[in-house]
Specification:
8 strands; binds iron/sulfur cluster; globular; alpha/beta
Length: about 400
Amino acid sequence: MLLPARELPFEVPSYSLTGDILAFQTCGLQYRYYSGSSLPPSRPVQIWTGEFVHGALEDAYRLWRERQFPFPWPSNPTPFPAPNPLPQRAENDIGVIGDRVEARLAASGKRPRNRDAREAVYRRVTSAINELGPHLFPLITAAEERISGTRAMPEIEGRVARGDRYELTGIVDVISSVQLGRETTNPLVRMLQGHLPNRAGVFDIIVDYKASRRPGSADSFWVNQQWQVQTYAWLREQSATANPIGAGVIVYVDELAPSATELTAFKKELEAGTADVAPPVGSADWYAIQRWRSGAELPELTFDFRVNRAVRIISVSRVDVDAAVHAIDGVVERIEASAVREFNTGDILANWSACGGETTCVACDFRTFCPEPHAHRGNPHGPRPASAPG
Ligand code: SF4
């Protein structure tokens, strides 16, 4: 007797803009394996770094709002390994804030890769709190705000996938409220006014922190992150209480204290013409970067240059937001189509695209059996995995 195939369960699928959409865009196959198992990545270094940055900036903002400690705040991270007893430090010491965030992350098994990685993150968070904080914190009206909305489910290969709608969710790091169209000394507001010269009045600004460097304009992260923030704007617009949204802002925290690896990547982008923010030729920053060589002490770069690299302003015009949410619909369509094809064939590897970039593949748990890791692409004679799980 033939048993009928079981249908896909009916539900309203929920997609997180970071956990699903950005993850699938980063690599479809890696997303499938992580989302299809309850196992955490075996190398949760990037997760620790991102969550530490978000947690420390949020805790610092809440402390500033309650106690208004003047900037700059001291920064004395607890040595690694930690002494017993811990040194006495002020309540607003960034090391004390970091201890709390590290304890929360350690409770879920997340730890930094090594001492150097931990020190680098503290340098960046210290710079973000002491250099950006005085300008950003006073503008903040909400932090860690959950937003969601539903959209029509795209049609998948002639059939509706699972239900006729899907839910899109996200967490906006910060909503800021800014008054445009009048004199200000706040460098962040001035940057926004430069991008929105004809706007006046109070606007909401959607701010997203990234624990990474600013990508080059040829990098897929460039447009994917733009769509993410523009889709936050669309979701936020669904809220009846919101002010008009003036812009999105991505803060690339690493740009405030770049590492040697990041400076090397930046120099390559300068040569290739894919760095959208470059120091003016002949400026102190330009000379400092041109003269710097890998292995030498990192150059001192001006606050103006670093903040211009760190702060990326994203248009949220009607046209751009509509284009972004349609692009996100397209990503959902590809995820659903991959799931349907896997359901019909029982084959994972053939139905989820292995498209990770170089840095993603290097740290990927599945590279030993991945059919197309970055290092093998375009190299028909390169080694191939001997076998792969279905
Ligand atoms: S090795 Fe690269 S392409 Fe393959 S699954 Fe991992 S991230 Fe994706």
